[in-house]
Amino acid sequence: MRRGEDLAALDRVAREIRGSVVEMSHRAGTPHLGSALSCVDLLVAAYWAALRIDPSNPTARDRDRFILSKGHAVSALYATLAHRGFFPLAQLETFNEAGSALAEQPSPACVPGLELATGSLGHGLSVGLGMAFAGRLAGLPYRVLVLMSDGECNEGSVWEAALLGAAQRLEQVAAIIDYNKWQATGRSNDIMALAPLREKWEAFGWSACEVGGHDLKALVQVLGNVPDGSGKPVAIVAHTVKGRGVSFMEDDNNWHYRSPNADEVQKARIELGLP
Amino acid sequence: MRDAFAAEITQLASEDARLVLLSGDIGNRLFDRYKQRHPERFLNCGVAEANMISMAAGMALSGLRPVAYTITPFVTTRCLEQIRVDVCYHNTSVVIVGVGAGLSYASLGGTHHACEDIAFLRVLPNMTIVCPGDAMEVRLAIRAALRQGGPVYIRLGKKGEPAVHERAPEFAIGKGIVLRAGEDVCLLSTGTVLPLAVEAAARLSKDGVSAQIVSLHTVKPLDEDLLADVAARFPLLVTLEEHSVLGGLGGSVAEWLAGRSAPGARLLRIGTADEFLHGGGGQDHAREHFGLTAERIAARACAMLKTIGAR
Question: In this predicted complex, what is the ipTM?
Answer without folding.
Answer: 0.96
